[in-house]
Design a protein that fits this description.
Chains A, B: Keywords: DNA-binding. Two copies of one chain form a homodimer. By secondary structure, chain A is mostly helical. Chain A folds into two domains: 65 residues, Homeodomain-like (Arc Repressor Mutant, subunit A); 133 residues, Tetracycline Repressor, domain 2, CATH 1.10.357. Chain A contains nine helices and no strands. The first copy, chain A, binds a DNA duplex through helix 1, helix 2 and helix 3.
Chain lengths: 202, 202
DNA sequence: AGACTAAACGGACTGCGGTCCGGTTATATT
DNA sequence: AATATAACCGGACCGCAGTCCGTTTAGTCT
């Protein structure tokens, strides 16, 4: 699936990670979840995490590279789940439904995902240089592009996929939901409207 | 125009700012431009700025509130210029042209603006909690919304305006131009395509 | 078992944005 | 001119993400 720089399957790690490293990774992820459920994602600092997990700060950064990397690791499981649902799961999200319906379902799924994991998603995007490095982002982009093509879109589908993806930007979605009290269903309706118009033949 | 928390007209400041404050603001803005032209926007730190301007660090934050506020102040003139062009200037950007053409022109203008002031715009968006506080953002949003209505858009024009605005997100635009080598004209073409499809009657 | 090595460890350190508060100074008032 | 006061000034200080490097240790080879 998406290639992540560090092992993350809870069991598979196999022949490449020392036992103390594995033990510390577990401790760190556990402590991170604990801290987040206590203080929210914003209350998780790298120092506190290191202390709580009983490891040195250097170890935290060795494992996850950055705060954003840690958040990505915490999201990894649900991320993979969502990915496999829209790539291999049942229609209309997965293959088998008309492209337009899949596009609508994709947006709806993404909106639900962002609403559910709010702060984590936000924190994961910080990765200094760009939220376009998030490996999953390339996948979504490509997915939208392919669906556009399938739906008979006849212009620059690569750029259009990016524009549509921007409408699903987590920061925007969460701002609408949290600060403007917009109901997620209304977001889904607007997304449906958007993609329908974009795909609709001249 | 957009209400900015600190005085910024080079002359008008009038009856509310002590002379030493005015002098220091000038020094700071001057030093900021100097530093940016030497080291780029990324090389401007608040400490360096304070030192270069010969003032204390506290003064910098008193004047501009944050790094993002400083960047906003640096952009203020060109921002106001752009705003008055699309609000009062000649068509197709200003009033007088059909709504769809104005929408296209607005996107083109914004793209050109972002490409020109790249790093500054990026730095101005950092404002910790959200890039939706930037006073100008509300104006663009409203502008797009009104143009959508004028063009006969018959659905949730407020949310649609936000979705379209997201396609003009500076971080995205600059990533496309700088890291993917996309020509600005291609961005404009894609924007035209997007708004045309969105506005096009069923 | 003993020695070797590459990997992992930990915590002091840096540079950053941002805050705080005691001292200073411009301006209005009498 | 003397006084009062509100605004301003400066730089020590804080918490943060991220780096560096000397030390320890797990896994391997003989």
């Amino acid at each position: 699936m998406t290639s992540i720089p560090f092992r993350s399957g809870p069991d598979q790690a196999a022949a490449a990670e020392r036992s103390d490293a594995a033990r510390n990774r577990k401790r760190l992820l556990w402590a991170a979840k604990e801290l987040i459920s206590e203080c929210g994602a914003g209350g998780l600092t790298m120092d506190r995490l290191a202390e709580r997990a009983g490891v040195g700060k250097g170890t935290v950064f060795r494992r996850f590279g950055s705060r954003a990397g840690l958040m990505l690791a915490l999201l990894h499981d649900s991320e993979v789940d969502f990915q496999s649902r829209f790539m291999f799961g049942p229609p209309p999200l997965g293959p088998g439904a008309p492209a337009l319906e899949r596009l609508v379902a994709f947006g709806a799924g993404r909106i639900a995902y962002v609403v559910e994991f709010g702060d984590l998603v936000l924190a994961a995007e910080d990765a200094s240089r760009g939220r376009f490095d998030v490996p999953a982002a390339a996948l979504w982009h490509r997915h939208i592009e392919v669906l556009l093509d399938d739906a008979g879109f006849d212009a620059d589908s690569w750029l259009m996929a990016g524009s549509l993806g921007a409408a699903l930007d987590p920061e925007r979605l969460l701002d609408l939901v949290r600060r403007h009290g917009v109901a997620p269903e209304r977001l889904v309706a607007s997304w449906r409207d958007l993609v329908t118009r974009v795909v609709r033949p001249a």
